[in-house]
Protein backbone atom coordinates (compact mmCIF):
# COMPACT_ATOMS: atom_id res chain seq x y z
CA UNK A 1 0.00 0.00 0.00
CA UNK A 2 1.36 3.42 -0.95
CA UNK A 3 2.01 5.94 1.78
CA UNK A 4 0.57 9.36 1.09
CA UNK A 5 3.17 12.06 1.64
CA UNK A 6 1.75 15.57 1.76
CA UNK A 7 4.57 18.07 1.30
CA UNK A 8 2.34 21.07 0.51
CA UNK A 9 3.00 24.18 2.60
CA UNK A 10 0.37 26.89 2.19
CA UNK A 11 1.74 30.42 1.71
CA UNK A 12 0.35 33.00 4.17
CA UNK A 13 -3.18 34.17 3.35
CA UNK A 14 -3.68 37.83 4.27
CA UNK A 15 -7.26 38.03 3.02
CA UNK A 16 -10.04 38.07 5.60
CA UNK A 17 -12.97 35.67 5.77
CA UNK A 18 -16.13 37.64 4.99
CA UNK A 19 -19.05 36.80 7.29
CA UNK A 20 -22.20 37.04 5.15
CA UNK A 21 -24.79 35.77 7.64
CA UNK A 22 -24.83 34.37 11.16
CA UNK A 23 -27.34 33.20 13.74
CA UNK A 24 -27.02 30.95 16.78
CA UNK A 25 -27.06 27.84 14.57
CA UNK A 26 -24.84 28.50 11.57
CA UNK A 27 -22.53 30.93 9.80
CA UNK A 28 -22.37 31.67 6.07
CA UNK A 29 -19.00 32.88 4.84
CA UNK A 30 -17.15 33.96 1.72
CA UNK A 31 -13.85 32.05 1.80
CA UNK A 32 -10.86 33.77 0.20
CA UNK A 33 -8.77 31.92 -2.39
CA UNK A 34 -5.48 30.69 -0.93
CA UNK A 35 -6.86 29.61 2.46
CA UNK A 36 -7.17 25.99 3.58
CA UNK A 37 -10.64 24.92 4.72
CA UNK A 38 -9.19 22.76 7.49
CA UNK A 39 -5.78 22.96 9.16
CA UNK A 40 -3.26 20.43 7.83
CA UNK A 41 -1.24 17.90 9.83
CA UNK A 42 1.88 19.94 9.20
CA UNK A 43 2.07 22.69 11.89
CA UNK A 44 3.01 25.16 9.14
CA UNK A 45 -0.49 24.64 7.71
CA UNK A 46 -2.31 25.73 10.87
CA UNK A 47 -4.12 28.72 9.35
CA UNK A 48 -7.48 27.69 7.88
CA UNK A 49 -11.16 28.60 7.73
CA UNK A 50 -11.85 26.38 10.76
CA UNK A 51 -8.84 27.66 12.73
CA UNK A 52 -9.94 31.28 12.26
CA UNK A 53 -13.65 30.75 12.85
CA UNK A 54 -13.30 28.62 15.99
CA UNK A 55 -11.69 31.67 17.68
CA UNK A 56 -14.92 33.60 17.04
CA UNK A 57 -17.45 30.75 17.27
CA UNK A 58 -16.14 28.15 19.76
CA UNK A 59 -17.32 24.67 18.88
CA UNK A 60 -18.05 25.43 15.22
CA UNK A 61 -17.40 22.68 12.67
CA UNK A 62 -17.13 22.47 8.90
CA UNK A 63 -20.02 20.88 7.03
CA UNK A 64 -18.20 20.83 3.66
CA UNK A 65 -14.93 22.12 2.26
CA UNK A 66 -13.65 24.17 -0.63
CA UNK A 67 -10.27 23.50 -2.21
CA UNK A 68 -7.37 25.72 -1.14
CA UNK A 69 -7.51 27.79 -4.34
CA UNK A 70 -11.30 28.01 -4.56
CA UNK A 71 -13.10 31.03 -3.12
CA UNK A 72 -16.73 31.51 -2.22
CA UNK A 73 -19.65 30.33 -0.16
CA UNK A 74 -19.33 27.92 2.73
CA UNK A 75 -21.81 27.09 5.50
CA UNK A 76 -20.35 26.38 8.93
CA UNK A 77 -22.28 24.70 11.75
CA UNK A 78 -22.12 26.19 15.25
CA UNK A 79 -22.85 22.92 17.07
CA UNK A 80 -22.83 19.16 16.48
CA UNK A 81 -26.61 18.81 16.01
CA UNK A 82 -26.65 21.46 13.28
CA UNK A 83 -23.60 19.86 11.67
CA UNK A 84 -25.39 16.49 11.55
CA UNK A 85 -28.55 18.03 10.08
CA UNK A 86 -26.63 19.92 7.39
CA UNK A 87 -24.39 16.94 6.57
CA UNK A 88 -27.53 14.90 6.01
CA UNK A 89 -28.73 17.44 3.45
CA UNK A 90 -25.38 17.26 1.65
CA UNK A 91 -25.34 13.44 1.66
CA UNK A 92 -28.93 13.30 0.40
CA UNK A 93 -27.99 15.80 -2.34
CA UNK A 94 -30.74 18.25 -1.49
CA UNK A 95 -28.15 21.04 -1.33
CA UNK A 96 -27.54 22.90 -4.60
CA UNK A 97 -24.06 24.30 -5.20
CA UNK A 98 -23.27 26.52 -8.18
CA UNK A 99 -19.78 27.64 -9.15
CA UNK A 100 -18.40 30.29 -11.50
CA UNK A 101 -15.25 29.43 -13.42
CA UNK A 102 -13.00 30.54 -16.25
CA UNK A 103 -11.97 27.69 -18.54
CA UNK A 104 -9.03 27.62 -20.95
CA UNK A 105 -10.11 27.80 -24.58
CA UNK A 106 -13.57 28.12 -26.08
CA UNK A 107 -16.08 25.35 -25.34
CA UNK A 108 -17.88 24.07 -28.41
CA UNK A 109 -21.26 23.40 -26.77
CA UNK A 110 -23.28 25.94 -24.78
CA UNK A 111 -24.19 23.40 -22.11
CA UNK A 112 -23.60 19.80 -21.23
CA UNK A 113 -23.07 17.09 -18.62
CA UNK A 114 -19.79 15.45 -17.60
CA UNK A 115 -20.37 11.96 -16.24
CA UNK A 116 -17.02 10.43 -15.25
CA UNK A 117 -16.18 8.40 -12.14
CA UNK A 118 -13.34 9.71 -9.97
CA UNK A 119 -10.84 7.64 -7.98
CA UNK A 120 -8.07 8.35 -5.49
CA UNK A 121 -4.63 7.15 -6.44
CA UNK A 122 -2.15 7.34 -3.52
CA UNK A 123 0.72 7.04 -5.99
CA UNK A 124 -0.37 10.26 -7.68
CA UNK A 125 -1.34 12.22 -4.52
CA UNK A 126 -2.76 14.86 -4.43
CA UNK A 127 -4.16 14.18 -7.91
CA UNK A 128 -7.42 12.35 -8.44
CA UNK A 129 -8.03 10.38 -11.62
CA UNK A 130 -10.90 9.43 -13.92
CA UNK A 131 -11.43 5.70 -13.46
CA UNK A 132 -14.55 3.86 -14.61
CA UNK A 133 -13.43 0.67 -12.85
CA UNK A 134 -12.58 1.84 -9.33
CA UNK A 135 -13.92 5.39 -9.24
CA UNK A 136 -16.96 6.72 -7.43
CA UNK A 137 -19.77 8.06 -9.65
CA UNK A 138 -19.34 11.77 -10.38
CA UNK A 139 -21.55 14.06 -12.43
CA UNK A 140 -21.32 17.78 -13.22
CA UNK A 141 -23.35 20.14 -15.39
CA UNK A 142 -21.94 23.14 -17.21
CA UNK A 143 -23.46 26.14 -18.92
CA UNK A 144 -21.53 28.69 -20.96
CA UNK A 145 -22.00 32.31 -19.88
CA UNK A 146 -19.61 33.91 -22.38
CA UNK A 147 -16.65 33.21 -24.65
CA UNK A 148 -14.03 35.91 -24.89
CA UNK A 149 -10.34 36.69 -25.49
CA UNK A 150 -8.13 37.99 -22.70
CA UNK A 151 -5.32 40.26 -24.01
CA UNK A 152 -1.85 39.20 -22.86
CA UNK A 153 1.08 41.51 -22.08
CA UNK A 154 2.98 40.39 -25.19
CA UNK A 155 -0.02 41.24 -27.37
CA UNK A 156 -1.48 37.77 -27.91
CA UNK A 157 -5.08 36.90 -27.06
CA UNK A 158 -5.93 34.09 -24.65
CA UNK A 159 -9.26 32.36 -25.44
CA UNK A 160 -11.35 31.82 -22.28
CA UNK A 161 -14.87 30.63 -21.53
CA UNK A 162 -16.85 31.80 -18.49
CA UNK A 163 -19.08 28.99 -17.28
CA UNK A 164 -21.51 28.13 -14.53
CA UNK A 165 -20.75 24.71 -13.04
CA UNK A 166 -23.23 22.65 -11.01
CA UNK A 167 -21.84 19.50 -9.40
CA UNK A 168 -24.51 16.86 -8.81
CA UNK A 169 -22.10 14.81 -6.68
CA UNK A 170 -19.39 16.03 -4.32
CA UNK A 171 -16.13 14.24 -5.11
CA UNK A 172 -12.72 15.70 -4.28
CA UNK A 173 -11.47 17.94 -7.15
CA UNK A 174 -14.59 17.00 -9.11
CA UNK A 175 -15.06 20.22 -11.09
CA UNK A 176 -11.35 20.60 -11.75
CA UNK A 177 -10.88 17.09 -13.13
CA UNK A 178 -14.19 17.12 -15.02
CA UNK A 179 -13.23 20.35 -16.81
CA UNK A 180 -9.89 18.77 -17.72
CA UNK A 181 -11.85 15.80 -19.05
CA UNK A 182 -13.82 18.25 -21.24
CA UNK A 183 -10.51 19.38 -22.71
CA UNK A 184 -10.88 22.84 -21.12
CA UNK A 185 -9.17 22.93 -17.70
CA UNK A 186 -9.99 25.67 -15.19
CA UNK A 187 -7.64 28.61 -15.65
CA UNK A 188 -4.95 28.63 -12.94
CA UNK A 189 -5.47 24.97 -11.99
CA UNK A 190 -1.95 23.70 -11.34
CA UNK A 191 -3.02 20.05 -10.85
CA UNK A 192 -5.17 19.52 -13.93
CA UNK A 193 -3.65 21.51 -16.76
CA UNK A 194 -4.87 25.05 -16.12
CA UNK A 195 -1.38 26.54 -16.39
CA UNK A 196 -0.14 24.74 -19.50
CA UNK A 197 -1.38 27.04 -22.28
CA UNK A 198 0.99 29.88 -23.21
CA UNK A 199 -0.03 32.93 -21.18
CA UNK A 200 -1.65 30.96 -18.35
CA UNK A 201 1.51 30.19 -16.32
CA UNK A 202 1.31 33.33 -14.18
CA UNK A 203 -2.43 33.20 -13.43
CA UNK A 204 -2.62 34.50 -9.82
CA UNK A 205 -5.18 31.95 -8.55
CA UNK A 206 -7.50 29.10 -9.41
CA UNK A 207 -10.38 30.71 -11.30
CA UNK A 208 -13.12 28.81 -9.45
CA UNK A 209 -15.64 30.49 -7.12
CA UNK A 210 -18.55 28.99 -5.18
CA UNK A 211 -21.17 31.55 -6.17
CA UNK A 212 -24.45 29.98 -4.98
CA UNK A 213 -25.50 27.71 -2.11
CA UNK A 214 -29.11 26.61 -1.60
CA UNK A 215 -30.20 24.56 1.43
CA UNK A 216 -32.90 24.36 4.10
CA UNK A 217 -32.15 26.01 7.43
CA UNK A 218 -31.95 23.03 9.81
CA UNK A 219 -34.01 24.76 12.53
CA UNK A 220 -36.75 26.91 10.95
CA UNK A 221 -36.74 24.87 7.67
CA UNK A 222 -36.85 27.94 5.43
CA UNK A 223 -34.77 27.81 2.26
CA UNK A 224 -31.47 29.68 2.48
CA UNK A 225 -30.57 30.95 -1.00
CA UNK A 226 -27.09 32.40 -0.69
CA UNK A 227 -25.42 34.14 -3.62
CA UNK A 228 -21.97 35.69 -3.84
CA UNK A 229 -20.73 37.23 -7.08
CA UNK A 230 -17.51 35.95 -8.62
CA UNK A 231 -14.47 38.23 -8.03
CA UNK A 232 -13.09 37.50 -11.53
TrEMBL record:
In terms of Gene3D superfamilies, this protein maps to: Pseudouridine synthase
**EC number(s) per entry:** 4.2.1.70
| Any Pfam family matching the protein | PseudoU_synth_2
Q: Name one GO molecular function term.
A: pseudouridylate synthase activity
Q: What class of enzyme is it?
A: lyase
The family classification in the record reads:
Belongs to the pseudouridine synthase RluA family.
UniProt name for this protein: Ribosomal large subunit pseudouridine synthase A
Source organism of the structure = Citrobacter europaeus
Amino acid sequence: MSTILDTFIAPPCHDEIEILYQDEHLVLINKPSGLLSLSGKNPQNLDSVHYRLVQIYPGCTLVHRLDFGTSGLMVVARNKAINAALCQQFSQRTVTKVYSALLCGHLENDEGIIDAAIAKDPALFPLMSICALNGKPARSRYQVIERFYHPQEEGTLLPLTRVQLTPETGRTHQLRIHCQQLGHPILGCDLYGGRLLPGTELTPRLMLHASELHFRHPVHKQWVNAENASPF
